[in-house]
What we know:
Blueprint: H1 5-12, E1 18-19, H2 23-26, H3 43-50, E2 56-58, E3 63-65, H4 75-81, E4 90-93, E5 96-99, H5 100-107, E6 111-115, H6 121-129, E7 134-139, H7 142-154, E8 160-164, E9 179-185, H8 201-208, E10 211-221, H9 224-236, E11 240-245, H10 304-308, H11 312-319, E12 325-330, H12 348-353, E13 359-360, E14 363-364, H13 366-374
Parallel strand pairs: 1-8, 6-7, 6-9, 7-8, 9-10
Antiparallel strand pairs: 2-3, 4-5, 10-12, 11-12, 13-14
Helix pairs in contact: 1-7, 3-5
Amino acid sequence: MGHDKLRKFAENETFSCLLQPSAQELLADGYFHLRDHAIKGRWNDFFGGLQLGSSPLQTSGCAGPLPPSFDRMPASELAASVPSPAGPSLLRSRGRLRSAGETAEAAAREIVLELGCGKGEYTIALAERDPARNYIGVDIKGARLWKGAKYATEHALPNVAFLRTRVEFITAFFAPGEVSEIWLTFSDPQYRSENSRLSSPLFLERYRSFLKPGGIVHLKTDSRFLHEYTRAVCEANGLKVLACTTDLYGSADVELFGSSPRKTSGYAGPLPSDDGPLPLTKPRVARFSGRTAETGNSAPAVQPVVREVQTFYEQLFLEQGYPITYLSFVIDHEGPYASPRDPEQFDSKAWRAAEGPRLLFGHDSAETRRQKLHGASSPNPCDL
């Protein structure tokens, strides 16, 4: 097992900010009847413990980390293990006592998810810039999550957590209205399977079950295919688009109906090593108001954090000269979500061919290999 995975998996068990539920327990009643996890509806209690400023909890009467088996506890034991805002009257944080009122205020915060967070650098960066909200990164790869969980633990970040699970199981972990925003950062476009796309009607149904009214989904991707598909989903279902651009770094303009992409000069910064520090910078965050433009075809400016924070894969694709797209929208919608008609609303064949070659770590991507195998051409998206 490469990349020192066994050591990372063992260390993951010690991180209080990382939950690793048993898929077998979730699927005990079948794939279509997922069992709710004990954490569902109790994330603020969990963050109430992390608000202490470090993984170990220190109260006037006890000290010690959250149990590593927290993710496997029944609800009754979970309630006794996680400190409640109404629990101990005084908690120690970074050398000072915190009142129960302060702890309750810290825990009762909005929750933001990043789905498919990889190593967690985007989740970490968002949380460090916005300490007023709690952030949770979700991914199935434990060796990747290790990096973000270790950083959050070593830097005593009180508003960061990670969840190791398949995104398909996400409804088992969050209660109605428990989440305010979702970030989809460089998700797999899933060319062959619409239901596997994280912005498909199937996944929007899942998100709606736990997003607050007016909840926002952010999509940041190098894939014009996925961007155009998601925009078509918004149009097919009458969803409110807040901001949309097909070239995030090549132009300051943000449009409701994006133009053809233009090549960007790329990003010249260093790429993070597997075990090296996360490349995080700390500019000030400007919270997005979510207001649409009143006149013309322009939309509100993209919030600064969208451009300031770059994922590992984002840097790779920027170095190859591929434009990065961004789309944010509200998923409020009554009734079932509909798929866009192909090719009238979304021409999947044309946009799939328009992706062009991709190199990942010096090798062709799976789609690039497919195109070479079948002799598919890669037209310029500007010609579509």
